[in-house]
């Protein structure tokens, strides 16, 4: 039998949900901590005010695998359209793809916006000065008469000082998303495999297999 190009050594029937979930957490945690991991930049979908889907790439910042805070976060400008979209409709979906391991995750949850609590403060403190530039300008997605960088011109060639960067604190928001379900599709030359993990309100896990 030829080697499996997906790097997945198990065939489709001899693996448990527990083993798949272990792999999922491992890669999500690597995505949050390693810049070059493909899970570092997932696509996040929200529902825009006219009811149409609205998707964009974000940076995965942290992952919590345990109850009661099983979830994921990204950072954003408080004036970004996705913030008002989430405030109107908290349903959110994350999509991750690992091209070497050849597996996709679709994570669904409910999002909340954090600007003034401990989580927001902790994340702001962990933010690098260069990244803080993004919070020193206008919110994204506004019309502009010319191309603009999204931060003040005097910061084009340098990072802000700590004092300059603090002006951005009022524009900084953390989007926390619960993990209510994970749909995992693993591509495999001898047959794909698709598993579903659903946590109920009490945090109890239910698992299922799906046709790929
Ligand atoms: C690699 C990459 C990483 C990004 N990371 C973020 C991020 O962490 N937070 C964010 O708000 N926007 C991020 N963006 C920009 C968004 O994709 C998007 O263009 C912007 O936030 C406006 O989105 P909105 O109009 O839906 O709010 C990133 C874009 C790229 C290409």
Summary?
By secondary structure, this protein is α+β, with helices and mostly antiparallel strands. It has 5 helices and 10 strands, in the order H-E-E-E-E-H-E-E-H-H-H-E-E-E-E. A hairpin with a 4-residue loop joins strand 5 and strand 6.
> What's the order of the H and E elements?
HEEEEHEEHHHEEEE
Largest sheet, described in full?
10 strands, antiparallel
Distance between the termini: 22 Å
- On the 0-100 scale, what is the average pLDDT? 93
Unreliable residue stretches: 1-7
Overall body shape: elongated
Amount of helix: 10-25%
Tally of helical segments:
5
Q: How many whole angstroms does the radius of gyration measure? A: 19 Å
Say how many strands there are.
10
CATH topology, which one?
Pnp Oxidase, Chain A
- What fraction of residues sit in β-strands? 25-35%
What is the CATH homology-level superfamily?
Electron Transport, Fmn-binding Protein, Chain A
Query: Which small molecules are bound?
Result: flavin mononucleotide
Structural class: alpha+beta
Estimate nothing, just give the exact number of structural domains: 1
Describe this structure in words.
The protein has helices at residues 17-33, 81-88, 118-125, 129-132, 162-165; strands at residues 43-47, 53-57, 62-64, 71-77, 91-98, 103-114, 172-178, 181-186, 193-199, 205-210. The protein is of the alpha+beta class and 212 residues long. Strands 1, 2, 3, 4, 5, 6, 7, 8, 9 and 10 form a ten-stranded antiparallel beta sheet that branches. The radius of gyration is 19 Å and the shape is elongated. The two termini are 22 Å apart. The chain binds flavin mononucleotide (FMN). Flavin mononucleotide binds next to strand 2, strand 4 and helix 2.
């Amino acid at each position: 039998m030829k080697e499996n190009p997906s790097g997945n050594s198990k065939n489709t029937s001899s693996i448990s949900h527990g083993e798949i979930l272990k792999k999922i957490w491992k890669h999500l945690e690597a995505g949050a901590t390693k810049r070059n991991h493909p899970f570092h930049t997932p696509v996040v979908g929200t529902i825009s005010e006219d009811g149409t889907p609205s998707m964009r790439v974000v940076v995965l910042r942290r992952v919590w695998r345990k109850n009661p805070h099983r979830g994921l976060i990204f950072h954003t400008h408080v004036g970004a359209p996705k913030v008002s979209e989430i405030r109107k409709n908290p349903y959110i979906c994350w999509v991750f793809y690992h091209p070497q391991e050849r597996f996709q995750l679709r994570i669904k949850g409910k999002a909340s916006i954090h600007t003034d609590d401990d989580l927001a403060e902790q994340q702001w403190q962990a933010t690098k000065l260069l990244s803080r530039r993004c919070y020193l300008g206008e919110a994204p997605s506004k019309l502009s008469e010319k191309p603009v960088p999204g931060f003040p011109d005097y910061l084009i060639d340098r990072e802000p000082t700590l004092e300059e960067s603090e002006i951005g604190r009022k524009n900084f928001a953390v989007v926390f998303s619960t993990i209510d379900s994970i749909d995992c599709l693993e591509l495999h030359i001898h047959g794909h495999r698709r598993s579903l993990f659903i946590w109920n309100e009490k945090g109890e896990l239910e698992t299922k297999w799906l046709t790929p």
